[in-house]
Write a structure and sequence with these properties.
Keywords: Signal. With about 325 residues, the protein is of the alpha/beta class. The protein folds into two domains: about 30-120 and about 245-315, Bordetella uptake gene, domain 1 (D-Maltodextrin-Binding Protein, domain 2); about 120-235, Periplasmic binding protein-like II (D-Maltodextrin-Binding Protein, domain 2). The chain has helices at about 1-20, 40-55, 70-75, 90-100, 135-145, 160-170, 180-190, 205-210, 255-270, 275-280, 290-315, and strands at about 30, 60-65, 85-90, 110-120, 120-125, 150, 175-180, 195-200, 215, 245-250, 285-290. Strand 1 (about 30), helix 2 and strand 2 (about 60-65) form a beta-alpha-beta unit. Residues about 1-20 have low confidence and may be disordered.
């Protein structure tokens, strides 16, 4: 009996390295916790194609929207920790525990694997707003309480949190108008029903056409692609406004370390290919790859930043 147990333990010890070395031996699933068509979905499909080519195995994207991204995240948290089910997540991964009344999974059951891209938030206003810089926008908001309204793609979304951060740091009152998705928010913003919006660089074509006005970007330094656009902090009127949407891979926390390293290596390798870099830029994003340790630290920093704002502004989602 002891000999049998010894042999079983020996076989188990060798099984994990062998599984990692042979990975993947069948199709891999990437879960997107949002509806098809958005930035997260586009990134997942971009990486699914690139990883599928690298591995010689199909990589399938499965959309599981709902619950502020918690439904899709929960599905991955409960999946086998064998590397065959991954999640592409964003800011909801660190804010949901402080916003949702009930979490359908334990946050610690998912582990950060690799960050792939950032989408800096740009402060846009409708041309009907008499402000051509951040200082003038703050003055307008103070002179007209209840007049400045911000669109967002949903409660707890990156645009929503950026607007709350801006309002808190500027000491102004704003009206939050959450929509069910970016498309609906942008439609009303362009129509003037809502007069401000923190959105990504994807909306810059509208600014170039004069349909909206770009005032500043919520980054520590100016962007290389938009050197003429100042940062919010440069205004001298509002400080410490840094906000970006971001996108990264997660997996079940119980996934063995060697397999986790193999997955991260593959994701970071395709991130450096010219094809993926070009498509990331085409989506209005900035390639910003990070491995497991750096991405975990980034998650901790984002969690601390947004927890403070969520609690101060009393933001909650059902």
């Amino acid at each position: 009996m002891r000999r049998f147990l010894f042999l079983l333990a020996s076989l188990t010890a060798f099984a994990a390295p062998a599984a990692a070395a042979d990975f993947p031996a069948r199709p891999v699933t990437i879960v997107v916790p949002y509806s098809p068509g958005g930035l997260t979905d586009n990134i997942a499909r971009l990486y699914a194609d690139a990883l599928g080519q690298r591995w010689g195995q199909p990589v399938v994207v499965e959309n599981k929207p709902g619950g502020g991204a918690s439904i899709g995240a929960a599905a991955v948290a409960r999946a086998p920790a064998d590397g065959y089910t991954l999640l592409v997540g964003s800011v909801g991964m660190v804010t949901n525990p402080y916003m949702l009344k009930q979490m359908p999974y334990e946050p610690a059951s998912l582990a950060p694997l690799a960050r792939v891209a950032l989408a800096p938030n740009v402060l846009y206003v409708h041309p009907s707003v008499p402000a051509r810089n951040v200082g003038e926008l703050v003055d307008f908001a103070r002179a007209h309480p209840g007049r400045l309204s911000f669109a967002s793609s949903g409660v707890g979304s990156s645009p929503h949190l950026a607007a709350e951060l801006f309002a808190a740091k500027a000491g102004i009152e704003v009206i939050q108008v959450p929509y069910k998705g970016t498309g609906a928010a942008m439609t009303d913003f362009l129509g003037g029903q809502v007069n401000a919006y923190f959105d990504t660089m994807q909306s810059m074509p509208y600014a170039r056409e004069g349909k909206i006005r770009a005032l500043a970007v919520a980054t520590p330094q100016r962007l290389d692609d938009l050197p003429g656009l100042p940062t919010v902090n440069e205004s001298g009127r509002v400080a410490d406004v840094v906000s970006s949407s971001w996108f990264g891979f997660y997996l079940p926390a119980a996934t063995p370390g060697d397999l986790r390293a193999r997955l991260a290596e593959a994701i970071l390798a395709v991130s450096e290919t010219a094809a993926v870099k070009d498509k990331i830029k085409g989506l209005g994003l900035i390639g910003a790859p990070q491995g497991p340790a750096a991405f975990a630290q980034f998650n901790r920093e984002e969690e601390a930043r947004w927890r403070e704002i969520i609690e101060r502004q009393r933001i909650g989602a059902d």
